[in-house]
Specification:
Layout: H1 26-37, H2 41-55, E1 60-66, H3 72-79, E2 102-105, E3 112-116, H4 127-133, E4 141-146, H5 152-163, E5 167-172, H6 175-185, H7 192-209, E6 217-219, H8 230-240, H9 243-252, H10 258-269, H11 272-282, E7 285-287, E8 290-292, H12 296-309, H13 314-324, H14 328-332, H15 346-370, H16 374-378, H17 383-410
Parallel strand pairs: 1-3, 1-4, 4-5, 5-6
Antiparallel strand pairs: 2-3, 7-8
Helix pairs in contact: 1-2, 2-11, 4-5, 6-7, 8-9, 10-17, 11-17, 12-17, 15-17
């Protein structure tokens, strides 16, 4: 255990650390056990570090296609959490504005790109050559959008996509316009649920008439991200992506509901034990009166990631304030626990560690002894437990503040 080499006196009062064991799966515990038994903890940590670094770079490319004027560009903006007038938004208009595939990076996750593809249904549109023209192999899945009727053009394109082994999803946009028209024309008999079902039934019928066997259609409005089928579409995409792409997709979702915030929290928590092991094996941070291992760089990078994922950075808050028509200071006023992402630095992390060190170390020591497998070979060092504790604690605080911001924005 010389590579750990950090010893502390155990606190006399037991702390409730046993719950920590439940956060590591049996498979994860067995990996740690194998690393220890082969005397290669550093090697295991190096592999985890490489895995974590590659995870942040895994690309997710989403293709948005449909007929001209169907709202493709607005959807590109909506799925990235942007309004049509925000900086970096896709250009929108009543006529086709996209001549070639145009990639729009996510505002805070550069590995996520949403592609606005040229419109289908034009005289030059040929389904067979269209996919080649737009570099079909680049995209992970396709969203096929229609603002009124789904036609044979949509079906033909879907078949070509299916032949090439990629997923596609039918989206009916601008349902808010249909609802508004119905309410204006027939206010006394207006029934939103019934009208939405009629729109869905009509879309399904058109698709079946055109040859689609079992179509599924999502009804959306790009200006109301939390209404209609937008949340269902997000959940469907999440469930059908592989684990690595799913992580990128979840972290890239706009923070429009408490459910999305919890999904992001759960996804980020999955990797904290790996970060803790890397910190345990490779980093030392000495603090006055204490001696324990903790990699400041690991904490700094991941704390900043947590804050940007939850929109707790100046750019995200400025965009949100504009979208909901509130002063940005009003949104910032409910952030009580964590700093802005822009404020996270090595100096801030060291200061944060100094203030929280006693609680973190005590919890870490008790937790490590109570975790099966890990405890026996890490009880002499608290780097694993300290990093695990600090990241979990910071993540929980970030979620609470993000929930406060969401509540204020929607109030």
């Amino acid at each position: 255990m010389e590579h750990l080499g950090y010893f502390l006196v155990r606190p006399a009062v037991p702390l409730p650390g046993a719950a920590m064991a439940g956060k590591l799966s049996r498979e994860e515990l067995e990996k740690l056990k194998a690393a220890y038994e082969t005397g290669n903890l550093n090697g295991a940590a190096a592999k985890l570090k490489e895995e974590l670094e590659s995870l942040e770079k895994i690309p997710l490319d989403i293709a948005i296609t449909g007929e001209s004027g169907s709202g493709k560009s607005s959807f590109v903006n909506a799925i990235r959490g942007l309004g049509d007038e925000d900086e970096g938004a896709a250009k929108t208009g009543v006529v086709e504005t996209t001549k070639d595939p145009k990639g729009y990076p996510h505002p805070v996750l550069p590995n996520v790109t949403v592609w606005d593809l040229p419109g289908i249904g034009t005289p030059n549109f040929q389904p067979g050559s269209y996919l080649k023209q737009v570099n079909f192999s680049r995209y992970d899945f396709f969203i096929i959008i229609a603002s009124e009727r789904f036609t044979s053009h949509h079906i033909t394109l879907a078949r070509e996509i299916h032949k090439m082994g990629k997923r596609f999803y039918y989206v009916r946009s601008k349902v808010d316009a249909d609802l508004y028209a119905a309410q204006t024309r027939r206010p006394s008999t207006y029934d939103e649920v019934r009208i939405l079902q009629e729109i869905r039934d009509n879309c399904v019928k058109n698709l079946r008439d055109a040859g689609e066997v079992s179509p599924r259609v999502f009804l959306i409005c790009s200006w109301n991200w939390d209404k209609y089928d937008f949340p269902l579409l997000q959940e469907t995409l999440e469930n059908e992506l592989d684990a690595q792409k799913r992580r990128a997709f979840i972290l890239g979702l706009p923070n429009i509901s408490a459910k999305i915030l919890e999904k992001k929290k759960a996804e980020l928590k999955k990797h904290i034990w790996k970060l803790a092991l890397v910190s345990c094996a490779i980093a030392v941070i000495p603090l006055p009166g204490l001696s324990f291992a903790c990699d400041v760089a690991i904490l700094m990078v991941n704390m900043k990631l947590y804050l940007t994922a939850f929109g707790l950075d100046d750019n995200s808050l400025t965009r949100l304030a504009k979208q909901v028509g509130k002063p940005v200071a009003e949104l910032k006023s409910v952030i009580k626990t964590v700093p802005m992402a822009n404020s996270i630095s090595k100096e801030w992390v060291v200061s944060f560690l100094s203030k929280s060190a006693c609680a973190a170390v005590m919890t870490a020591e008790e937790a490590l002894d109570l975790i099966p497998i890990i405890g026996p070979f890490l009880s002499g060092g608290v780097s694993f437990g300290t990093t695990y504790y600090m990241l979990n604690s910071f993540l929980n605080d970030a979620v609470k503040d993000a929930q406060n911001v969401l509540a204020k924005a929607l109030s």
